[in-house]
Design goal:
By secondary structure, the protein is α/β, with parallel strands linked by helices. The chain contains ten helices and twelve strands. The strands form three sheets. It has a six-stranded mixed beta sheet with strand order 3-4-12-9-10-11, with helices on both faces. The protein has a four-stranded parallel beta sheet with strand order 7-6-5-8, with helices on both faces. Strands 1-2 form a two-stranded antiparallel sheet. Helix 4 links the parallel strand 6 and strand 7. Helix 2 crosses helix 3 and helix 3 runs parallel beside helix 4. The structure holds 4'-deoxy-4'-aminopyridoxal-5'-phosphate (PMP). 4'-deoxy-4'-aminopyridoxal-5'-phosphate (PMP) binds next to helix 7.
Length: 358
């Protein structure tokens, strides 16, 4: 997929985009909100108290709790931004009440779009591979969306994949639009102009040495990396991509099944700019889920599987770089426990997959 419009960098390292207007960052947090959509963004950074030391890491590790967004994930931000762009510009299609929003997703963008559609009066059809949790589907159904499941094995270019089925539905349904998180500039832009600004603002005068982000569409890592490199000289951005996905390098691994939801792909989305990612770690399911369970049980951080993944490989990187105890590390936790109650939270689910140590 090709990104609509073009990102350009000036001589001072600042990024602009050819076709999207930028929102100004406003750090104020109003106490009373007009709609629940105003409870998207401005999520807290929390310092981990126990886990880093337990794993032999002495530097300060801060986690950005994106599960505290209104719909429960960081993808609420991009859903809201893509809708706002379509409402204002008519791109990639006109949005007025009654129009059907169709989106292929691993679920969290679907929840964000379902939430916004419920509030704004759009119809919503979400197309999602079978692998993704029942909890996500139920959340979207309760918001009034229609959910269609596709086979996990269908490659991105198959007519049976979540992308293929979405394209067919758009051609069949009048007044429908795919906002297309894989190439919509609003995806990385939401993180460039909002998530990354929040991190820089909230860290105040503390330096940031390392930022660790998982990648699916790559919108998070691309948007945050662009802004953080503009504002924090010398920072390192590490992307995390599961074994079985090609995002970290097309020839690095074969496409194979993994359980962590929302990360990795069998194609390179237009929203991922690998040039702005400093380095990659390749992740495994077991380590990711064990760390997610540890974040919940020892820090009270009610996060999802990709969050555990990001924290595990962040700690590995701290050790590899031998970061001093004065160093500050920021890790983004994309979603929360609600999406996985019958999956990695359930011991029998973990045992069936040999993810729990005896
Ligand atoms: N973790 C989870 C749980 C997600 O749903 C997503 C979104 N696909 C990501 C990580 C990765 O975010 P991005 O699409 O911005 O790369």
């Amino acid at each position: 997929t090709k990104l609509a419009g073009e990102w350009k960098q000036d001589d001072n390292g600042k990024w602009t985009h050819s076709s999207v207007e930028f929102n100004k960052f406003n750090p104020e947090r109003p106490l009373v909100l007009d709609t629940v959509l105003d409870a998207i963004g401005k999520t807290p950074l929390v310092k981990l108290q126990h886990i880093p030391k337990k794993h032999g890491v002495n530097c300060n590790v801060y986690v950005k709790c994106e599960y505290l967004n209104a719909g429960g994930s960081t993808k609420d931000r991009i859903a809201q931004r893509m809708i706002e762009i379509a409402e204002k510009t008519g791109k990639p299609g006109k949005l007025v009440p009654g129009v059907t929003v169709i989106e292929p997703t691993s679920g969290n963008t679907g929840i964000g779009l379902s939430l916004a559609s419920a509030v704004k009066g759009y119809k919503c059809i979400i197309v999602m591979p079978k692998k993704m949790s029942k909890e996500k589907a139920l959340a979207m159904e309760s918001l009034g969306s229609t959910i269609i499941r596709t086979p996990n094995e269908a490659g991105f270019d198959s007519p049976h994949s979540h992308i293929g089925v979405s394209l067919r539905l758009r051609s069949e349904i009048q007044d429908s639009v795919i906002l297309d998180q894989y190439c919509n500039p609003g995806n990385p832009l939401a993180h460039y102009e909002q998530t990354a600004e929040e991190i820089v603002y909230d860290m105040g005068d503390k330096n940031i040495d390392l930022v660790v982000l998982t990648a699916g569409t790559g919108g998070t890592v691309t948007g945050i990396s662009r802004k953080i490199h503009e504002k924090v000289p010398g920072v390192k951005v590490l992307g995390v991509d599961p074994h079985g996905s090609i995002l970290a390098g097309p020839n690095e691994t074969d496409i194979e099944f993994y359980e962590v939801e929302g990360i990795g792909y069998d194609f390179l989305p237009g929203t991922l700019d690998t040039k702005v990612v400093d380095d990659w770690a390749k992740s495994h399911d077991k380590e990711s889920f064990l760390m997610a369970r540890e974040l919940i049980s020892t820090e009270g951080i009610l996060c999802g599987g990709s969050a555990g993944c990001a924290v595990h490989y962040a700690l590995e990187e701290c050790k590899k770089l031998n970061l001093p105890d004065t160093a500050n590390v920021v890790v983004l936790l994309p979603d929360g426990i609600r999406n996985y109650l019958t999956k990695f939270l359930d011991e029998s689910w973990m045992n069936e997959r040999h993810f729990l140590d005896a």
